[in-house]
Amino acid sequence: MRIESIAVHAGAEPDAQTGAMAPPLYLATTFRHGPAGERIGGYEYSREDNPTQTRLEAALTALEGGAAALAFASGMAATDALLSALPDGHVLIPLDVYQGLRTLAREFLANRLDVEAVDMTDVKAVASAIKPTTKCVWLETPSNPLLQISDIAAIVEIAHHAGAIVAVDNTFATPCLQQPLALGADVVMHSTTKYFGGHSDVLGGALVFATKSDLHEEIAHARHVRGAILSPFNAWLTLRGCRSMPARVAWHCRNARAVAEFLASHQRVERVNWPGLESHPNHAIAKKQMHDFGGMMSVQIKGGREATLAVAGKVNLFANATSLGGCESLIEHRASVEGANPVSPQNLLRISVGLEHPDDLIADLANALK
Ligand code: PLP
């Protein structure tokens, strides 16, 4: 089946008892069991699992073409769960990556993981950075906020040869545009807060595993004990989002192309980072491993920080806000929100292109760039 059909039906089968066509929401935290703890309906306590979470996990598994999935309270909870389950050793992460990963590695994992940033657009650089102690290569492609692209299949080959697993943050692409497990990756991570939820109203995260391995078992056990599971209501909202995700993502891509082409032709723009543009340095790899190029981009404005902030200050339809993947278009000066050590260029604005009409988005940007 194609992904559009999987998205509508996976985890969303009519309720067996009532025939309800919309998935039921089980808010129950506890489930009746026998006198010696025997499970009656398959569930015991919602910190371990819950029927609504199970439905979402079935949808996540089917959408990514995996063998199992685990839903978490946020993307960062999912990331933390995976990295915490790795044996002590070396981990490679991209130079350009969601800043939360860098903070997690520096502040919470440094005592047991030697986390090294490498240019993941350069396969040779990845090959030379791999060590005998490398446990995991973490990819984020497209990356946040520079929209750099890594060659997933090529890096998988290098990592597997060295005995390391490959995890891919697939948040920007979604499984509608890119399926890392089919390219050999071991685990996919999502901030489902973004395109899965799709309406900027539900936090969540997920890990999807290529096989039902010991790693999956270990992380499921850790989630049960440590309690970072997604709530049933958030699972229900995210499952609702899954069903329309391919249709929304197609529209995000269409709008993004119009916005990127407009920005690329504007005299005040120094550079547009969107992998769908032929001028993008990794366009060929993006074309090879993605079906389309997504709704995320960043733009670098001529004239430095002040000129860039002036553009961000003049938009009306776009909102200055963090996050991405919702119906509404967002813009953000990343360097201003990256804390004490900003790494994004001072002239960069990250853009999450929403579902408005592209003419209106372009008119708003044209006015802000006047
Ligand atoms: N990965 C990427 C690419 C992100 O953009 C984000 C959040 O912005 C995360 C992970 C973290 O997800 P969450 O905010 O759901 O914890």
Explain what you see.
- With 370 residues, the protein is α/β, with parallel strands linked by helices.
- It has 12 helices and 12 strands.
- Strands 1-7-6-5-4-2-3 form a 7-stranded mixed sheet, with helices on both faces. A 5-stranded mixed sheet has the order 8-9-12-11-10.
- Helix 1 (3-9) packs antiparallel against helix 9, helix 2 (51-64) packs parallel to helix 9 (232-264) and helix 3 crosses helix 4 (99-109).
- The longest helix has 33 residues, at 232-264.
- The protein starts with a helix and ends with a helix.
- The model has no long low-confidence stretch (mean pLDDT 98).
- Bound molecules: pyridoxal-5'-phosphate.
Number of helices: 12
Biggest β-sheet description: 7 strands, mixed
Number of DSSP E strands = 12
Our measurement of the CA-to-CA distance between the termini, rounded to an integer number of angstroms, reads 47 Å
- How helix-rich are the residues, as a percent range? 25-40%
Shape: globular
Topology order in helix (H) and strand (E) letters: HHEHEHEHEHEHEEHHEHEHEEEH
Average pLDDT score: 98
Strand order of the largest sheet: 1-7-6-5-4-2-3
Radius of gyration: 21 Å
- The helix/strand class is alpha/beta
Q: Bound small molecules, which ones?
A: pyridoxal-5'-phosphate
Enumerate the spans where pLDDT stays under 50 for 5 or more consecutive residues. none
Q: How much β-strand is present in the residues? A: 15-25%
